[in-house]
Every structure is written in C-alpha cells, then in structure tokens.
Amino acid sequence: MTSQIENAQFFRSLHTPQSPLFLYNVWDAGSSKAVERAGAKAVATSSWSMAAAQGYEDGEQFPLEDMLAAVARIAKSVNVPVTVDFEGGYAANPETVRRNVHKLLEIGIVGFNFEDQIVDGPGLYSVEDQVCRIRAARHAADSMGVPAFINARTDVFLKADPATAHDGLMAEALIREKAYASAGADGFFVPGLTDDTLIRQVCDVATLPVNIMTTSTREFGKLVKSGVSRISLGPVPYIALMSALEKRSETAHVV
User: Fold this and answer.
1) Is the CB of residue 82 less than 8 Å from the CB of residue 55?
2) Closest CA to 24 of 210, 191, 232
3) Which residues have CB under 8 Å from 227's CB, separation 6+?
4) First CA to last CA distance, the chain
5) Which CATH number fits domain 4-252: 1.10.10.10, 3.40.50.1980, 3.20.20.60, 3.40.50.2300?
C-alpha cells in the first residue's frame, strides 16, 4: 500500500512544464473513482463543485467537518494522490489555519489549494498576512512529516474589476508569487488569467510551478506551450454533468 509520503512525493513530481499535470476536478467519491478509472494520475476536488453537490454555495459555506468527511471518503475510494481545494483554509488567523491543515492531512490528503482572497470579505489579504498564513500551513505539514504540496492561489486577476487590464496586475501577482514561494508554497495558481502572452510571462518569471484554470480541454495544447505545469478545470465538469442531467430529466418528463 502506497504511503501518504510516497503519494505526496509522486504528486509533487507531476508538476513539470514539459508534461503538465491535468486535473479533471471532482466533487465526491463517485466522480473521483470515475476519473481514476479514466487514467488520472491524481484527483483534485473543486470547492465550488463539492459545495454545490451538497446544496451549498461556494466560499466555505460547506461546513468544514462535513467537507472533511466528504474528502475522507474520496481519499478512501481511490489509489491515486488526492489534492483538495481548501479555499482560505476555513480561517483567517494563522493558528487556526495550521489546525485545519492538520485535520486535512490526517485523512491522507497530499496537497491543497490555498487562496489569498478574504472569504466573505472585500479584496485580498495583504502579502504579509498571507505569507504568515502560508507559513502556518507549511508548519502543519512539516510537523506531520508530510511533504504536502501547497498550491498558493492568488485572486489578483479573478477578483479584479472586469474593466481592469490584466497586464496592469502582473507586477502585484509576481510580487505575491515570490513572497509565497519564500513562505513555503510549492505551486502558484492564477485563476482568471486567460491571456496567452501573460500566462507565458508568469511561467517565465515564476520560480514555482504555475497552475492555470481553463474552461475547455481544447486549451490544453496552448497552455503546454506556455510552460504551465498544472492545468485544472475547476467547476466545469460538475456544471457540464448537471446540465446534461437536467436536459435528460426534461426529456423524460415529456409526455
């Protein structure tokens, strides 16, 4: 049986720009097993999808203990590494973040997304505050001896005013990447960034493997050429499946 440490080491090795990790995000044990059967090297949850599947909104509305129970079931159902969209760690202060990450790793998880937006609040944490939060998460993993992959997410682009040009946000994003790397992050996740030139620029400058979220598998080829090390789909798989289910249900009710 593969140990958590071995799974974590294997998962870390999958982040390469030459052959990036593709993650078809899941929301429960059933979707996880389906993705594993399809040949996935790892399983990644989507917080939006997990919350929606249980009737909640995204943004840590899915209660922590219930979310952990669902994640534990996923981890027991598959043999590949599991990484979790942990949003903001279900806490603002570093000490609670540390305790929550400890709970997550206790159930066998080997990686997690950790974002810098203030959940249920305006804007982002300051660089300094987020660095403290990442350090707390890193300490939790190190204290357990698990080389967990912390995928530091910045919402610089995702939370920006739609009228704001993304090239004007690059400096802040790269400052955050450097700071998060120094705090112990292992990856840099930039949801909302879609411009090919800017994606390539982030990949060229960043010291961490870059994760891009896309809405279509048709974009994978371009992202590989840009130097991305990890590609994910977020809530897209769940939305597509629920849409298909709804259409089939409508057809079934036609007399």
Assistant:
1) no
2) 232
3) 17, 200, 203, 204, 210
4) 52
5) 3.20.20.60
Hey, where are the domains in the chain? Answer: 4-252
Question: What residues have CB less than 8 Å from 110, skipping those under 6 apart?
Answer: 4, 7, 8, 11, 81, 82, 83, 146, 148, 149
C-alpha distances in angstroms, 142 versus 177, 181, 196, 230, 241? 21, 16, 36, 23, 38
pLDDT digits (tens, 9 = 90+) for 62-105: 999 999 999 999 999 999 999 999 999 999 999 999 999 999 99
Residues near 63 by beta carbon (within 8 Å), at least 6 away in sequence: none
Q: Which is it for the CA torsion 64, 66, 69, 71, positive or negative?
A: negative
Span 189-247, pLDDT tens digits? 999 999 999 999 999 999 999 999 999 888 899 999 999 999 999 999 999 999 999 99
Q: Which two tokens stand for residue 237?
A: 């798989």
Which pair of structure tokens corresponds to residue 61? 């509305």
Provide the angle, in degrees to the nearest 10, between the axes of the packed helices 29-37 and 64-77: 30
**Cα separations in angstroms, 86 against 43, 112, 182:** 14, 6, 20
The structure tokens listed for 59 are 């943004």
Cα 53 from Cα 139, distance rounded (Å) = 32
Q: What is the DSSP string of 197-212?
A: HHHHHHHHH-SSPEEE
